[in-house]
Amino acid sequence: MHSLNNGKFSFSNDTVKQDLQILIQALDSSISGIILTDNQQPDNPIIYCNRAFERITGYQRQEIIGHNCRFLQKEDRNQKERFMLSQAVKDGAECVVEMRNYQKNGTLFWNELYMSPIKDEHGNVLFFIGVQNDITRRKKAEQELLHQQDIMESQIRERTKSLKDSEDYLSSIVQTVRESLVVLNPDFKVLSVNDHFLKTFKVSREETEGKLLYELGNGQWDIPKLKELLENILPTNNPVEEFEVEHDFPHIGKKLMLLNAHRIELEGQYKDRILIAIEDITDRREIERRKDDFLSIASHELKTPLTTIKGYVQMMQRLLPANASDKYKDILRKTGIYVERLNNLIAELLDMSRIQTGNIELHKETFDFDSAVKEAVENIQSATKTHQINLQGSATNSYTGDESHIVQVINNLLSNAIKYAPESGEVLVYLSRVSNFLKVSVSDKGMGIKMEDQKKIFERFYRVGEIQQRFPGMGIGLYVCDQIIKNHGGTLWVESEPGRGATFNFTLPLDERTSDEQ
Amino acid sequence: MSNKTILICDDDEGILDMLELVLEETGYRIIPVQNSLHIYDEIEKQHPDLILLDLWMPVLSGDQILKNLRQNPETKDLPVIIISASREGERIANDAGASCFLAKPFDLDTLVNRVDEMIAA
Question: Which of B21, B87, B106 lies closest to A307 in CB terms?
Fold first, then answer.
């Protein structure tokens, strides 16, 4: 070991043995494994190892000395670091590698090996110093980290894929709906439209997306009502539904559109974007109009011969011979009743059809409400000999609404009260004012209505079971009444108990603003 | 009363017949007109005291006739009762200047009363 003379330690002949002892103790105190191999002998055998090397490898000194380092790799011979090492040995160069080694009991440990040559003055490599550190824990942590990264990456890949899948899925839904969809940014620039929009308005994606809505197709979307919706209504009333816009487009003609608009209020990248769904109801409205026309014509045509029949029946009653039998008179009277019923059915048919399609036009005018009710009561009273109708209270002499519709409701409620309370003989009509509403109550002392039937009687075609046989009709009278009152911004309801009569009430708002909303 | 003349114009023969029967019973002279195109001639020739006029008639409708009558100084005050089964009948009648409106099917007593009132006025 005379080569150590060239090292930093200076040995004096007197103390060389002691100094060497100290040096070996120092080496044994190291936590790094340290070995020396003799490059001058075949296969570079280990000629020195410190305690730490024994501890790291689990071998004892006598099992180590004389071996080549490769015994630490056991059968794991194909690590690329081995070739780096043998190359460094050949070149007499330094090198650092991290490789898998195995303890005596077979336990894997990661060895960070620093190898450096010791040369003589001619540059011949005499020895190699190997310094080893057990980095298993670090390696394990690194590997775990790597594994976690792999897991995370694969999770991200999966999530990205599922996000893309659901994006594709959503977009295929958006593209399939039979309604036009437009997405605008807060400055009304078109971010995207669906296929149905392109088809309906006969435009291409290129000339639509990225353009300002109002500038699309030479300004054909610069529609005052749409502007009103986007700029004045939507900012304060979000979302807006069923907003009707009619516009004559240069190439595709007049379109009647029903719009739903929704401004995104969620914080984030989509905030303040505007979604617009456009339903083209041009054709539907036209079909509804034709149906209404058809029913108007049909009812007109049906009523024409009915007019003649009614006239002749009344003539027959007038020209009744003095000696006509009671049976004959009764038949004539009944004929009159059924002619009247037929007339009502025709009128109901038309009313129902209009209400169903929401095409009831209100002709609003200010009229004397109390007088109108009084007149309606008198008319019904003059045709009713079985019941006494009492009118009490007062509501207003100035109400703005559709008089003929309101009178229709009064008539309907009165005739129901008479029809369904045949034995009672008395009907009360009570007018009053409650806060800013007027209230009309029509009470009979008839059979009453069961709780479970009270809601249903306002449905179209609903007729209370046992009533069905005794009082035929189409069962749409109350439905029509309910719709009319709703159209005027009011409420129609019933209060009743079986056997104790029924009171039908309706209220109408007297405040102009409220009544105008509907 | 019996010297008064009523012109009835309706494209439906049944109604025309029935009204003729009803009103002759009350003593009026009746001029039935089924084709509304002939109504102006009949008015000019016979100078009726009252007209019962239908609305929906082919070619020349009741409201067109009524508007014309109202523009003509000789007929602008002639009493005209519109009879119609149209839902919009009353509004159309009032807009065109009808003296009175009766929805079909009407009550005979009501009709006769109105006719009597109009002729007496």
Answer: B106
Kindly determine whether residue A311 and residue B87, on different chains, have CB atoms separated by under 8 Å.
Answer: no
Is the CA virtual torsion A449, A453, A458, A459 positive or negative?
A: negative
Q: How far is A344 from chain B, CA to nearest CA, in Å?
A: 10
The rounded Cα A256 to chain-centroid distance in angstroms is: 26
User: Could you give the CA distance from residue A371 to residue A226 in angstroms, rounded to a whole number?
Assistant: 43
Write down the pTM of the prediction: 0.51
Contact: A308, B21; criterion CB under 8 Å: no
Q: Are strands A240-249 and A253-263 parallel, antiparallel or unpaired?
A: antiparallel
Measure in Å the smallest separation between the Cα of A312 and chain B Cα atoms: 7
Tens digit of pLDDT per residue, chain A (518 long)?
444 555 555 666 777 888 888 888 898 899 999 999 999 988 889 999 999 999 999 999 888 999 888 889 888 888 888 888 889 888 989 999 999 999 999 899 999 999 999 999 998 999 999 999 999 899 889 889 999 999 999 999 999 999 899 888 888 888 888 899 999 998 999 999 999 999 888 888 888 999 899 888 888 888 988 988 888 888 888 888 888 888 888 888 888 999 999 998 888 888 889 999 999 998 888 887 787 778 878 888 888 899 999 999 999 988 899 898 999 998 998 898 888 888 888 877 777 666 655 555 677 888 999 999 999 898 888 877 888 999 999 999 889 988 888 888 898 888 888 877 777 788 999 999 988 899 999 998 888 888 877 777 776 555 555 554 444 454 567 877 888 898 888 999 988 888 888 899 999 998 654 443 33
Strand A491-496 and strand A426-434: pairing? unpaired
Query: What domains are defined for chain B?
Result: 5-120 (3.40.50.2300)
The minimal CB distance from A312 to the residues B18, B90, B104 is found for: B18
CA dist., res. B36 & res. B60, Å (int) = 6
Contact B106 A308 (CB under 8 A): no
Interface touch B105/A296, C-beta < 8 Å? no
Closest C-alpha among A129, A127, A81 to residue A101: A81
